[in-house]
TrEMBL record:
Domain of life: Bacteria
Record keywords, A-Z: DNA-binding, Transcription, Transcription regulation
A Pfam family it matches: IclR_C
Record domain IclR-ED: where: 82-243
Keyword S-adenosyl-L-methionine among UniProt keywords: no
Name by which UniProt lists this protein: IclR family transcriptional regulator
One of the record's GO molecular function terms: DNA-binding transcription factor activity
């Protein structure tokens, strides 16, 4: 009788409904590689996936055959060229608006407030994408607007998590930005405009590079701090979707 694991594997915990278990397990092996890993041993792969080493070896044989992993001279395994090829295909056909806009719409639906995606442009921030609140009373920023980096929740987030801007900050500004970095987001009422409130979180690419600030804005009288969890969740989701 085959041994049954007391602890479920990562693949079993996140099995695709109606999917194939072996594929889920193979994908969990690829997902085990993290930023900074230059190679993983059989033991490390087994530990990270919670699969038996014998199972890992069988899966690695198929993945290596397809070029998804490489076996190094020292016996460790690394991500193979097939992954790089797919990444190139993905990046070539990647459409930012097709990724950002659905997340913004979902955030607006969850909160009832306006959501925007801001990127740094010199000493300003550009509203690259925006979905308006369904409420008739809202702020009236538009896609394409340039706003100051030094004001508003989105500006503070970009200034706090942009390495160059943070290093250049001084005094009270540095203290404020350090607080934003520690909290992981910024929530402000009446900063850029006394009647506008905002909650913003950084969007990081998979390699840790800052991509944008995801910002929820609303009239000050409708500000609710509980919306921060929705903004943080949306920012994390976007980070996973960016190439």
């Amino acid at each position: 009788m085959p041994r049954k694991s007391v602890t479920e594997s990562v693949a079993d915990e996140n099995a695709a409904p109606g999917g194939v278990a072996a594929v889920d397990r193979a994908l969990s092996l690829l997902a085990a590689f993290r930023d900074g890993d230059d190679g993983l041993t059989l033991a490390q792969l087994s530990e990270r996936t919670r699969l038996y080493k014998s199972t890992v070896l069988r899966l690695l044989a198929s993945l290596e055959h397809g070029g998804w992993v490489l076996r190094m001279d020292d016996g460790r395994y690394a991500v193979g060229p097939a992954v790089a090829r797919l990444n190139t295909v993905y990046a070539r056909h990647f459409s930012l608006d097709s990724v950002v806009m659905p997340v913004l719409r979902t955030l607006v639906q969850a909160t009832g407030e306006s959501a925007a995606y801001h990127v740094r442009q010199g000493q300003d921030r550009l509203c690259l994408y925006r979905v308006d609140s369904p409420h008739p009373v809202r702020d009236h920023a538009r896609t394409g607007d340039l706003l100051p980096l030094g004001q508003g929740a989105g500006g503070r987030v970009l200034s706090a998590f942009d390495a160059e801007l943070y290093a250049a900050s001084r005094g009270g500004s540095r203290t404020q930005l350090a607080r934003v970095r520690a909290d992981g987001y910024c929530a402000m009422v009446g900063d850029r405009h006394r009647e506008i409130a905002g909650i913003s979180a950084p969007v990081f690419k998979r390699d840790g590079e800052l991509a944008a600030a995801l910002t929820l804005t609303m009239p000050a009288h409708r500000y609710e701090e509980r919306h921060a969890r929705h903004v943080l969740a949306a920012a994390r989701e976007l980070g996973l979707l960016l190439p």
